[in-house]
Write a structure and sequence with these properties.
about 120 residues; 6 strands; elongated
Length: about 120
């Protein structure tokens, strides 16, 4: 089973469009078009799974750089997802310590303050 990354897609590309495109090279198990979490709009890339490695290699060779939907496709073997460090946003909502967190200072020894007179 090979998973292929398909990039530089038109935002109007559907899963059925990609299924029809890749079926010319062999059997397609699954097509997943990446969509934006908030808007539901396509993000411009997709993943296509093909059960036969030889057919997947033919699809890569046949579709890499070819125009589809007004754009030149980028097709290659999908790499496994790696663990990325959490992003740090200003609010820190839901992603660990935020920008203004006191978490780093809780265990540190406090320095005495100078008097204000």
């Amino acid at each position: 089973m090979k998973s292929l990354f398909v990039g530089n897609l038109s935002f109007q590309t559907t899963e059925s469009d990609l299924t029809a495109l890749f079926q010319a090279f062999g059997q397609v198990t699954r097509v997943q078009v990446a969509k934006d979490r908030d808007t539901g709009r396509a993000r411009g890339f997709a993943f296509v799974e093909m059960p036969n490695d030889e057919e997947a290699a033919k699809a890569i060779a046949g579709l890499e750089g070819k125009p589809f939907g007004g754009r030149n496709l980028k097709v290659n073997e999908a790499r496994p997802r790696t663990d990325r460090p959490p992003t740090r946003n200003s609010s820190g909502a839901g992603r660990g310590p935020g920008r203004f967190s006191n978490e780093d200072y809780r265990e540190a020894a406090r320095q005495p303050r100078e008097p204000r007179w």
